[in-house]
Amino acid sequence: MEAQRWSFGLSSTLPTSPIQNQKHPFFQILHKPSSSSSYTSPNNHTVKGFFLKPHFSFSPEVFPSKRVFQCTNCLQRTEREATTVPDNGVGKELKKKKLAVFVSGGGSNFRSIYEATLEGTVHGEVAVLVTNKHDCGGAKYAREQGIPVILFPKAKNSSEGLSEEDLVGALRTYNIDFILLAGYLKLIPTELVQAFPRSIFNIHPSLLPAFGGKGYYGIKVHKAVIASGARYSGPTIHYVDEHYDTGRILAQGIVPVLANDTAETLAARVLQEEHKLYVEVAAALCEERIVWRKDGVPLIRSKEDPNHYK
């Protein structure tokens, strides 16, 4: 079968978009070109979506039962991206990992992780940001840093955004190693969980399994913690499965609940711990320091002492 072509074009006029900015366009539109350059997904829907960087062209190669997207005009890699580190606890040199971060709000955890990659604390690169709110603070910050932005999921009765299948294809195009949810409020679809097994992580602002599940997010979590009389709270980083907050726990941070705490003051202290914990976990992921106990519990190998686990 002749490979079809998936083209991205930069549009400075978005007649249906409330965020049009001809001087500094926020996104590109993934559009349907003419004749042989068009791309139609297997469910006969034209692929559309939002991306930031212009002048990309992707060609899907057809393999048995799978469609893989490959970048045919990628940006040149910097020398820093090609560097390796020898310390992952087993003396193995490692290339930088490609990270996709998902946000729905201000993206303070995303900023912490991104800054840590620039500083070298995290041996990885934020290759793309995914959001369900194109005008949220995290998406705006990503655009300012030149990070590609993808809108997901596709809004109802709208052609904007990507489907589950096309999101998987786009992330594979960026050669993503790990997906980090940082305040992303949508349930991750089964297609994505299955495409990236043991590679998707979420941070939750309570000590799971307490105060987790559908409806427990943001300030609601901290109000519930205080109302319960719990003496301790803190963030939890866990693997993502097909449900809210039920995946295996990887790391937790402890934050005392003070007698005079409000939901807002507790939230502020938990958020500070989130920033610290997520960077530590991202560093461990990129250095391949995650090991699995025989009972299926993931542990983090200490960087200083490979025989010690956190």
UniProtKB/TrEMBL annotation:
Domain Formyl transferase N-terminal residue range list: 97-281
Xref: Gene3D superfamilies: Formyl transferase, N-terminal domain
Entry keyword set: Purine biosynthesis, Transferase
Assigned EC number: 2.1.2.2
Keyword Transferase (UniProt): yes
Top class in the EC scheme: transferase
Reaction(s) catalysed by this chain's protein: N(1)-(5-phospho-beta-D-ribosyl)glycinamide + (6R)-10-formyltetrahydrofolate = N(2)-formyl-N(1)-(5-phospho-beta-D-ribosyl)glycinamide + (6S)-5,6,7,8-tetrahydrofolate + H(+)
Family stated for the protein in its record: Belongs to the GART family.
Protein name: phosphoribosylglycinamide formyltransferase 1
Origin species: Datura stramonium (Jimsonweed)
